[in-house]
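User: I'm curious what two different proteins look like when written out as structure tokens. Can you demonstrate?

Assistant: Sure. I'll show them one after the other, since each token string lines up with its own sequence. Here's the first protein:
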Amino acid sequence: MTSHSTPSGSVGERQLQSQLSTTHQASGFYNRQVQSLLTPQMREFIGRQTMVFLSTADAGGACDSSFRSGPPGFVTVLDDHTLTYPEYRGNGVMASTGNLTENPHIGLLFMDFTHHHIGLHVNGRARLHRDVDQRLVYPQLPVDTAPGRRPELWVHIMVEEAYVHCSKHIPHLEPAARPRGASADRPKDAGYFVPAAEVRHDRAIGTAPTANLRGPQSPSYG
């Protein structure tokens, strides 16, 4: 494996490793596992994944976590140092992409819950590209990650480090078709975590949504 010419880990990591006497153990992990590019095994792994968890933060460091999903390969490996994935119009908040306009740092976590029970961290810096501009440079990008929809943007990520997430506590999950329709007692998405009194008030003044924010088969982007 390619080893780093500069030390891995943040100042905070190094300080805690020293306090908890894990410096030698952590150094072994950095030297063996942390890569400055995507290895062929990592590239193949990403190409098989149908979901990814991501983290961003605004200019002040306030964090946000989110989730993206799609068919295998919806996160496209462009080369050893570059990834990209599409952003669709969702709830209109633009939390993740908004953060990236202030702070380009992004963290991705790919998890295989079904076959090899292993994870992959990818950290880097991102830029936002319009769909038409991204396709001019990369015409091989998939067009069917969300049938009938076109991406609003592409998140274009320059990889800075990538490393394994060990399998020890990863649960086993079996893929299954999503049940059709929602149970009668299930609240709408817009009211699922909202106090009942607020939902009743919104209905009384005519502002409560009458449908889910996203269709049942739409990608969870936004």
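Here's a second, unrelated protein for contrast:
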Amino acid sequence: MASPCDLVSQLKPGVTDAAEAWRFIRGFAAHWVTPLAEGDGCDDAELACAQTRLGLTMPAALRQGYQLIGDRQDLTSNHDRLLSPDQLYVDERGEVLVFRHENQRAASWGIRLVDLDKADPPVMTKLDLADKAAERWEDWMERCSLAWVEIVLSESLHAPEELSDFLPDLDEPLDNRFVYTEPGVELLVDRLAMI
């Protein structure tokens, strides 16, 4: 088995179920941030209160993610914002349970109400457009547990701490670190043999 810090080995075969997602998040936090501890997640009473207020039952993967890291803003809210259980809401069209917002509220993430009975349902995203009639919920992640992995990884990129202290000195001109694959498309070259 790969060590908790070996991100490529852990992610390459895929995170195939919720248990693997939680294992990955625990390993990532332990190696790159601060190990998970009691009190890092939302308690059962907090989640039950949100479910009662909303008149619905949260899917297992959404509940488990909140129980694991719901109060760890360093893993969930450095840039975009995971809503606390008392901030969860059903969108204005009554279609989606919303649990996350982009930092300027230009996008939202949620789970369709018709999918709440699934243990690990797909997650949808919606852009906040000037033309509200054009707004649509679109597929984002095939499983909620996988969305939690993405949240942790993407929010860690915006962490105030130096999570990437293993990087070499980047005195090299930035132009040398890009490769052009198509006109107008630039991809950052991952030239680190350590990963």
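A detail about the second structure: Confidence is low (pLDDT under 50) at residues 164-168, 173-195.
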